Amino acid sequence: MPLFNRRKQPATLTIEDDAVRFVRLKSTQPLVVDVAEEVKLPPNTVVEGKIVDAEALVVILEGTLKEWGIAKRDVQFLAPDTYVMIRKVPYPDDIEPDELKGHFFIEIGSTIYLPFDDPVFDVVPCTLNEESKEAILIASKESILDKYEEVLKAAKLNPVVADIGPLALYR
Fold this sequence. Notes:
By secondary structure, the chain is an alpha+beta fold. The chain is 25% helix and 37% strand. The protein has helices at residues 54-68, 100-107, 142-154, 165-170, and strands at 11-15, 19-28, 31-40, 46-47, 50-51, 74-78, 84-90, 119-126, 134-141, 158-163. Helix 1 crosses helix 3 (142-154).
């Protein structure tokens, strides 16, 4: 292992109905863009955030990733906004922050209803109001995210993070 080997940041991709986009920043303070790339997608490749033609998307990705310098890399991708739900929800006082995920795992489907059958979620304590305990519940449709992961792996990428647009912009 080289002595001064810098660990590469995962590449960030957005796959939308009209295009696949990749941006790499040189710095965040001040904001300096190093690379911004886009490849247009044929109609009906991705429709309303759902991958319809996975084979065509893999071919397009394989053709552009090497050109963009991100072939065979770790990638993070954005979950399609259509399949993302963010909600502030209360939780009982006796639940500790490290028990939140387990608590909400039990509550989803019984007292907390989501707009999709197969959710994958994360939960973060919200400390804006000291009087009541609340958390931010972020959920997406697992089968949709699995399809994105499958396509990225078929294009010889290693998906490591599925993010959501508002949080990715914040980061």
